Amino acid sequence: MLQAEGVQLLCLTASSGVPLFTRGSSKQLPFSVIGSLNGVHMFGGGQGVQLSCCETDRGDRVVWRVFRESVMLIAVSSSGDHTVTELQLCRLLENTWNCMVLVLGQEELSNVRNVERLKRDLRSCYRLIDRLLDRGEDESVMGDLTHCADCLLPQNTSLLQEALDAFTQASESEFGCLLIRGRVAVATEKWWRLVSQEVVLLSLLMRCLSGTTSCDYPVFLPVGSPTVAHRLLRFQLIQGVDVCTLCGPAPSLHHSETELVGRFWSPLMDILHGCLEQTQHSPAPSIALHPDILALLLINRESSRSLSLPGCHTTVTPQDAPPVPSTLRRWELLRLFYTFAVTRYFTTGEMVTSQADPLQEDFSQGFCHVPLHCYLVTEECKCYGLQTPQHQLFLLAALSMPTFALRSVATQTLTSITATTGF
Amino acid sequence: MEHERDESSGAPLLIPHGSVIVADWHRCPDSKEYFSKIFQKKRRKTFGLLEAPAMPPQIHVDTVRYKVFLAGKSGVGKTALAARLGGSDIPTMHYETTGIETTAVFWPVKLKDNGQVLFFKFHFWDCGENALRRFDHLLPSCKEKMDAVLFLFCFTDHGSFEDLSNQISRVSHPSHRIVKLVVGTKFDLFMHTDVTEREIRTFQETSGLPVFRVGGDVNAGLGEVAPLLNALAEHLWHQDCVTASCAPLSSQV
Ligand SMILES: Nc1nc2c(ncn2[C@@H]2O[C@H](COP(=O)(O)OP(=O)(O)OP(=O)(O)O)[C@@H](O)[C@H]2O)c(=O)[nH]1
Ligand SMILES: [Mg+2]
């Protein structure tokens, strides 16, 4: 999607500006422009200034970031209509770097001895990086932006949890996770102690691999284990349901596949089919939403988990009613509203320090309180955001919903979801 | 023993097509109810580890499982071949495989001898060549309990053809019987071929390994994959029979 919006990603060596790769938008930037982008950043560095972002008067954006003093990533959006926000580009750079570490490990990326070799090795990261640029069928997945794990709440979680814990233990691991439709259904306690970016990244990797039956992938964890690779073992139990464990040298893929998978998961076959069926239309089937809600994103701030729910509002509307955005557009709008809200109002913790929009800085610093609610009415929909110490809710409603009702609908929705699911 | 064996490697020589299983069985009307079980909505169905083709209760079909390792230079088309054999879309881009990926493929086969029908369940093990070099534990894992290897080269890269002998020596296993077949990929690009028919004939004679050709559109149906899957089934079944019949013998020696 970013690709379609003309985002280009450049990677250069930080010390000498040698291009390592470019991905994204089909119309490549000329070499001279790449050189200048690097040059201007270097010039700033020489003056003791760190250049992190700029915006042209046509609405194009450039974001720079140097990782471990060895690799510079630059994201350029040239859609020219402000649709790609700075937060999105910053996230893209972070996620890209994390993908590079996941595949190659920090060592190779930090101590570049042979540029040609690094260039060649970086090709192995393209699959994940391209997936960040073009999210394909993951339109309702938000983790790349929120850095919270996209979750799903099936029924029977206790049985699934039990099976997962036992399976993980039998795999000589403490890190195990069950994904349904690419979202975390249950995970072991230790899995949840991974940094949330890692949980998001591993889910992304698993979605990339979803066409195959099983995998044994060496992975470095960008925060938890950047220099020692672990083995990510992944098994497709039934189509749409995957289980994975992070293992050491044992057990072998062959052993797990032939001895462990059947033993622990065959008894749950019907339950797994049931979960898949239940969650076909919504990741949390037990929740009934107000009919005017188009989509919502609920974040549990403590556990860094998120739930993105489609509304039940159909695109077919009565003749005089204003048109309702398509399903795909709703997810896009929700991403935009999330970005809008967290960069302007819900600016908490690290979000402020790393992403503060320079133009907005004074504005948010001017607040002597933390905003708890915000809303926005656009030509396509109405948006409402609210936060509590534990949760953040971002909600899109049809234009037909009266603005004054947004607040109570949002508050009630939050209460009812957390009460019924304990999320 | 009816079939000659190459004593040095223990590998059976080329088994004539259709000598062990019914040739082109997918074209016969009596195969229909079996093949229909590996399709879903006119496309090949993918099976998770807990899934299998659902036969009606009154028909019992045994499943025999085999692990097949795909070996070959980076970019020859291992991942594409696994997708092709499994009936899914072939990736248009070359994204390096950065670990091991396996694909399970069910394939109904009718034995010539007694007319028994079996489901062959092939587990194709695809490991990116560059990952194999980076991480030492991957190759042993691929070789663990493998039953067959497909050595891949592609018609558009002569280097990949030259690399075959490397590949073959890397996985040979003197104590173990393994079916070995060679597959030339990207045969659809034969206009740009870099490997001549003559070279292939010479290779086939000296190595004693049969060479198959694949390439082109997957939507061509089963006809595209049947020759290779049948040959694989035939060689594996034959190998099992040989192993079973000479096991007591070899233990005496
Ligand atoms: N035209 C044509 N292209 C093919 C065929 N098989 C593979 N390709 C293309 O060749 C490229 C490389 O194929 P892959 O299957 O990804 O290569 P690989 O052997 O898995 O490579 P590594 O994972 O790096 O070891 C891809 O762009 C495929 O689309 C074929 O039969 N015909
Ligand atoms: Mg591959």
From TrEMBL, chain A:
Keyword terms of this UniProt record: Cytoplasm, Cytoskeleton
Pfam families cross-referenced by the UniProt entry: Fuz_longin_1, Fuz_longin_2, Fuz_longin_3
Presence of keyword NAD: no
Domain of life: Eukaryota
InterPro entries membership: FUZ/MON1/HPS1_longin_1, FUZ/MON1/HPS1_longin_2, FUZ/MON1/HPS1_longin_3, Fuzzy
Domain FUZ/MON1/HPS1 third Longin intervals: 293-419
Coiled coil (UniProt feature): none
Domain FUZ/MON1/HPS1 first Longin: 8-132
Keyword NAD set for record: no
Compartments, as annotated in UniProt: Cytoplasm, Cytoskeleton
GO cellular component, one term: cytoskeleton
Segments forming domain FUZ/MON1/HPS1 second Longin: 173-265
Family listed: Belongs to the fuzzy family.
PANTHER family associated with the record: INTRACELLULAR TRAFFIC PROTEIN-RELATED (PTHR13559), PROTEIN FUZZY HOMOLOG (PTHR13559:SF1)
Name listed for the protein in its UniProt record: Protein fuzzy homolog
UniProt source species: Coilia grayii
Origin organism lineage: Eukaryota, Metazoa, Chordata, Craniata, Vertebrata
Automatic annotation (TrEMBL), chain B:
Pfam families the record matches: Ras (PF00071)
Keyword Oxidoreductase: no
Stretches of the chain forming a coiled coil according to its record: none
Location in the cell: Cytoplasm, Cytoskeleton, Cilium basal body
Cross-referenced SUPFAM superfamilies: P-loop containing nucleoside triphosphate hydrolases
PANTHER family in UniProt: CILIOGENESIS AND PLANAR POLARITY EFFECTOR 2 (PTHR14983:SF1)
This protein's name: Ciliogenesis and planar polarity effector 2
